[in-house]
Amino acid sequence: MCGGVGYIRQDLPIGHPDFGKLQICTCRQKTVAQMAHDRLYRLSNLEAFKHLDFDSFSTQGRTGLGEEQISSLLMAHHTARQFAQTLNGWLLLMGTYGCGKTHLAAAIANFAVQMGVPTLFLTVPDLLDWLRFSYGNTETSFETRFDEIRNIRLLVLDDLGTQNATAWAQEKLFQIINHRYVNRLPLVLTTNQSLEEVEGRIRSRLRDPGLVTRIDITAPDYRSKDPNTSYPPLSSLHLHTKQSFGEFSTRENEKLSPEQQGSLLKAFEAAQQFAETPRNWLVLMGGYATGKTHLAAAIGNYRHALGSSPMFVVTPDLLDHLRATFNPNSTVSYDRLFNDVRTASLLILDDLGTQSATPWAKEKLYQILNYRYNAELPTVITTSSSLEELDPRILSRMLDKRICDIHGLKVPPYRPQGPVKRSIKRRRPASS
Predict the structure, then answer these.
(1) CA 420/CA 423 separation, integer angstroms
(2) Which of 51, 107, 127, 163 is least enclosed, having the fewest CB within 10 Å?
(3) Position 224 in a domain
(4) Whole-structure pTM over 0.90, yes or no?
(5) Which domain range does residue 7 map to?
(6) With contact defined as beta carbons under 8 Å apart, do 100 and 57 qualify?
(7) Is 308 helix (H, G, I), strand (E, B) or coil?
């Protein structure tokens, strides 16, 4: 039709809006469409992520995940796919390193580009570097670059919280996010931080339920094949892998009094029930080698087998870790470590009362346990101290029967003799 020129001029009457205008010939429409798509793709900054789409996302994660973690992956995948099709509101993807947040964010961006939507995918540090670079760029002014980012049809910001938190960086990031908030422009954010760690002005916008859909991905790092990597960094549960309910001796072949035997069985059954449905607090009291730590570790190992990430920490070790963050060479901030402990999905605090009883140590433990008490977060505590020896502030919370279940193991120290004999079998996890 065009004789190879690629354009045609339609035969239209004078006065028609398209009179005299060149139109793309049908022979070039596919080529032009592909060129437009390629241009969008180049502008999107997705070259390194072009292989990440919804079909390549594994909703099963790596082998050995629990039902709760697989469920969070399925929910995240379904929600991200729906968001990509509508681009309505904001999507906030939260979770630890390697859980799949970036994959889903890139899948949304790739889908949008395929649909012809102008899209920009950036990690937050790269975004700020782009803006800094534009100050000395003769081709593109800072104002132009800043305006492009604020108003792009779809903006995907990966790794919120990993940027250098200078006042300038915080201000520019807030201006971009606030502009998109005021104008209700689609935004995808990923972060491994908790909302409490996000800058206050941004946090307030992320808490708008009318705009923001929040997805928490609880799966561990899929890149690692080592199951120990799903333990929280501070947790020492991996040192107690042999301490299970099946390996716990109820000591029926020993000459224990009915009261002693009963206290042991009640503590054992309470620990099993807590492991199946972690709720509120469980306190295990008793002398050394009575089985407190074994039962606490068995709870942690049971939950870990179901795919959770319990934090098991000995009280003196916890305080040493917190003190170590004050070292200028520490790679972990005090605030981050402290928050990880007090907000852990399940905290198992072993040997409370054996720590150095300095005012600082007492205050930190109180702050952690008081937070978990008010938030009603599942917590297991073992102690060889008597109730009278504990911090009165912590004791008052333990004595709240609505929240806390206390069991005393009134048995002498356990001295294993020959093969372990047990009369109560370990209840197998539902996912086994």
Answers:
(1) 10
(2) 51
(3) no
(4) no
(5) 1-35
(6) yes
(7) coil
